[in-house]
Amino acid sequence: MNRANLKKEYLQLVATVREYVQEQLELGFTELQEPQQESPYATLDLLQLDADAQGCTRCGLHATRNTVVFGVGNPNADIMFIGEAPGADEDRQGEPFVGRAGKLLTDIIEKGMQMPRADVYIANVLKCRPPGNRNPQPDEVEMCRPYLERQIALIQPKVIVALGSFAAQLLLNTKTGITALRGEFQPYGVAGQRENAPMIMPTYHPAYLLRNPKAKREVWEDIQKVMAFLAE
Predict the structure, then answer these.
(1) pLDDT tens per residue, range 94-113
(2) Fewer CB atoms inside 10 Å of the end CB: C or N, the chain?
(3) How far, CA to CA in Å, does 31 sit from each of 16, 22, 26, 192, 194?
(4) Residue 77 in contact with residue 230, Cβ under 8 Å?
(5) Which residues of the chain have pLDDT under 50?
(6) Whose CA is closest to 44, among 57, 56, 31, 27?
(7) What global pTM score does this model have?
(8) Cα–Cα distance, 141 to 125 (Å, whole number)
(9) Domains and CATH numbers, the chain
């Protein structure tokens, strides 16, 4: 293609873009936004999503896991608890929060909130255990993110209790630490979830409470706020 034709195509492209921008301005849009890409899981129900996750090989964790820990509980729950990642007990049993931290979470739900654990929904940011219970890597979080976002969209909880920094930062799209975030409701920060978007209550992870028992009072304060919100 010669330079004259290239210049002609370039000018046509510029004119097309200019027309598009002018149309958007006339419609009242002052900022251009990239179109949202539909999740590859957008048409899957919870059972289909679980089945897909069981065979996931999108990151390196599939090579070291024993089981995929998808989630458990009431698919129509008003409250959802989201943690960081499965531990050794969860990796063996295929269910989130079944170890020592899980027992503490169950006590919070059943003894504190006075409701059966089966009435809530429990999941993690990651569906596979990181080796040695190390922190999740950014690429692992990104690979698992669509599963969690679809879970939330399907369950449509009124409140999500984000347990620890990784869950809170992902759900709120922030880098702020859990100590600064905890105790205050904030709207779900994921694009595309504007309708029926749950409120997020960040609080400390049960594993942190096992190491720092004095923080249980703060978590109980956060849980009381959740209970009051659900009672409105």
Answers:
(1) 999 999 999 999 999 999 99
(2) C
(3) 18, 12, 12, 17, 18
(4) no
(5) 6-7, 10, 32, 34-35
(6) 56
(7) 0.82
(8) 7
(9) 46-231 (3.40.470.10)
Token pair belonging to 186: 């904030």
DSSP 123: E
Residue 133 region by backbone torsions, left for phi larger than 0, else alpha for psi between -120 and 50, else beta = left
Q: In the 8-state DSSP scheme, what is residue 29?
A: -
Report residue 114 as tokens.
């006075």
Q: Angle CA(109)–CA(111)–CA(116) in degrees, nearest 5?
A: 50
Neighbours of 227 (CB within 10 A): 14
Which pLDDT score is estimated for 31? Answer: 52
Nearest-5° Cα angle at 84, 126 to 146: 35
DSSP single-letter state for residue 173: T
Cα(65)–Cα(86) distance, integer angstroms: 10
Tell me the β-bridge partners of 121.
Answer: 73, 80
Sign of the torsion formed by the C-alpha atoms of 103, 125, 86 and 95: positive
Residue 161: closest CA among 85, 219, 99: 219
All residues at 6 or more sequence positions from 21 whose CB lies less than 8 Å from its CB, including other chains: 32
> What are the backbone dihedrals phi and psi of residue 58, each rounded to the nearest 5 degrees, phi first?
-75, -20
Residue the block writes with tokens 């096992």:
210
- The closest of 185, 188, 64 to 126, measured between CA atoms, is 64
